[in-house]
Structure formats: structure tokens, C-alpha cells
Amino acid sequence: MRLMLGGLNGNFLANITLNAASRTEEVLAAVAYATDSELLFDWCFKHEIPTRFYGRLDDTVPVQVAILEKFLNKRSPNYVCKLVRYHHAKVIWWRGYGLYIGSANLTRSAWYKNVEAGCFFEESEITDEMATDILDMFDVLETNATPLTEELLELMRERAKRLSESEPPSDKFWASPSLRDWSGLVTTDKNAVSGRKRTQFLEEWHSTLQQLRDIGDRISASENRPPWVGAEIPRGAQADQFLHAHYYQRTFDGQKAQYAIHFEANKSNPEHALRETISWWRSLSVAPNHEDEMLKSSAPFLEAALSKYELDTMDYEIFRRVCAEVHSIKDYSRRVPNASVSLVSDGRRYTIDEKVAALSQRIWADRSAAGATVVELLHYILYGGSTDTLPERLWDATTNPKWKISGLGISALGEIVGWALPNQFPPRNGRTSKALKSLGYNVRVHVE
Predict the structure, then answer these.
(1) Other CB atoms within 10 Å distance of the CB of residue 340
(2) pTM (2 decimals)?
(3) Dihedral Cα 200, 447, 51, 39, nearest 10 deg
(4) Domain identity same for 9 and 105
(5) Do 268 and 363 have their domain in common?
(6) Residue 69's domain spans which residues?
(7) Could you report the per-residue pLDDT of 360-399, keeping only the tens digit for each?
(8) What confidence tier does 95 reach under pLDDT thresholds 50, 70, 90?
């Protein structure tokens, strides 16, 4: 985490945009006031990074008319601008790179002159809880936003003109049919908020789970399997590797996944996108990214190692091998800070195997707030009740201090559940969600 104090400590927001382009998959920005397009939006346009921006809505024209004009003139679903009343946040998430939360608006004074304070979190530092809260915030803004239309632009243009002539505020502004009025947040107690978040998580998880099952049923049919995929392989495992191949072969532009752009292209007809991708999949004579090795070797090992009997006797070496085969854990190990896994930061570049070993060793030695080990945590999720209530235990495992262990977030645990019980629960991690999103499914993309 970096403290962003601009001229006070040399950490300027502009430094982020200098380095983030190659890793940013999309930009989510909730910044109340915006007067300078060059600070963020022109950068997004230049690097063709999908952008969703939520500015403030009121009669002071908090978002400069020229910025509204730029978004509207783009006429592209990849660049969305909406305005929201009672919005005062300053949050920018360069997804794949990092998250800023602070006081700075999108103004040149805020970025270079004012005393502003905020924090920047590298993507690897963003916890499941943080990501969920930030995505919930964007959902609230989306629900209560006024979309940018020609009517809204004209209203703001006229209002800006009147402000320049020192005309006082008028109630007529809010009478415009172009605006979505909103009374703001309703204060609720912490328990009510927690219950709402739990309900939202379970609804989204069950919905996406069924979508993955449906895909598994379709691609496991004999007419849709490529020749190197056997009929005996569980449908959930097949669905996972189908999405794995699609994600890495068909959504990347250079080193960056363009799932957000593909989502805008496919969201009106996910079925068409899925059919076309199934046709591509069944035509593959060889596995494009070692999916055959995963299905024939890694998946059976994981299912066996995570079975109830084997889990009871799991030792560290088996757990390390599990971590090495679970995509989300392996991917997270690439990004985890060396110091957090007891590796010396002396300029040396550690191998992935070394990083996985260090991360798995830390997780193995760690305990939840109630003293639960990682084996006890996995046993609780997988076998601590009926399979019908497993998603509820998954929620507990990522939010309840009694069970929560650092380094095992929703992506890692969702994938582990899928490899342990592939016939009931197809693996789901951040990459799975991005692949689904690219096919037009409106799912939540969790952090890895």
C-alpha cells in the first residue's frame, strides 16, 4: 500500500497512469468532480481501456461539459459516463493494476497542487472484502445513476452557461425529465448491511453456478468434445478448461485480457457467443494451453487429495502440491509481496515454484482468529454440512474471522471446491468469471 500525498511525499496519481496501461483490463472510476479529461479519460481512450465513470449530479455542473461531450461523442459501449446525486466518492480502480481511494477529484489542482490524501493498493493487496465493498458501491451508483444522453448534455451545457452569467440556483433544474433523482443512502445498522451482502453474494453465486453447470452439460456432450477430452471427465472440470482455453486464446490483446470489451460486444446475445465458442472448442485437435494435462493429471490428483478421507490425513507436502495446481493460488503467488511470504527482497527474481512454496507454507502455518487450520477450514467448507449449503459455508470462510485465513479468498476457495466436487460445483475463480464475462454473462469478477 502506498500513501498518496502528491507534492508532500512525491506519490502523485499521475505516476499510476504512467505505469498501469499494460496491466489495466478496465477502469472503474467514481469521482465526484471532473474538470480535466487529460488526467484519466484521455489516457483510457488512448490505450483503448474500457471505462465506466460515475460523476456527481447537481446544478453546479461538477463534471465539465467538455468531458461529457467526449464520452458522448465516443458513441461506444466501452466508454460509459453516468451522473449520480449524493455522490462524493473519489475512487479509481485500474482493474488488474491497483485501486486508489482518497480525496482527489479529477482536477489538475487535486492531482498536482492541493493537499490531498489517499491510499493506493496494488492489485495483490486488494482483499475479497475490499473488492466486494467497492463493487457494491459501483452497483449502488449504477442503480441510481442518470445515463449520459444528448438531453442530459444539453441540460448541463445550458446550466453551465447560466452559471457563467452568475445566475443563482433554480428548482427548475431538478424538474428536468432527463434526471434521475435519488434521496441518497438510507442508514442501516451493521448487521443489516452484512445480511444484505450475504444475500447478494449467495444469489450471484448460485446464479453463476447454474450457468457453469449448463455450460458443462453442453460442452461435455459427445458432439461438442474435442478428441483429447474423454467422456469420463467430470462436466465441471470440462467447463473450467473450456473457459480457460477461451480466456487465454480469444480474449487477450498482447499481455492484457480484453474481457470487458468482449462483454459489451456479446451481452445482448450470450447464447450466440457461447455457440460460436463451443464450435471453436470442439474443432481443436490439440489443447492450446495444456488443458489436456490439467484434465488428465492435475484434476484427478486434486479431486483425490481433497476427498474427505485424504483431507483428514493431509500433510504439508500434499497441500503444497494442491496449491501448485490451483490456478488462482498459483497466479496470486506471482503477485504476492516477497516480504509477506518470508522471502528476502534483495533484487532476486524468484521462480513461480519458489513463490508457491513460500505462500503455501505461510497458509499452512497460519490460523484463523478462532485457531482453525487450513485443513479444518477446507473440511468445514467441503464436508461441514449438506452440499446444498456449501455456498453458505464458502461465504463464512471468506468473511467470518472464525474461519478466514489470509491468502485464501473467494477465487482460491471457489476453485478448490470445484476440483474437490467437480460434478456438483464447477471450479470458479477470477479467471472463470472473466471468461464468462467475455461471453456476455453479467457476472461479478472477483479478485484472484
Answers:
(1) 14
(2) 0.83
(3) 130
(4) yes
(5) yes
(6) 2-179
(7) 999 999 999 999 999 999 999 999 999 999 999 999 999 9
(8) very high
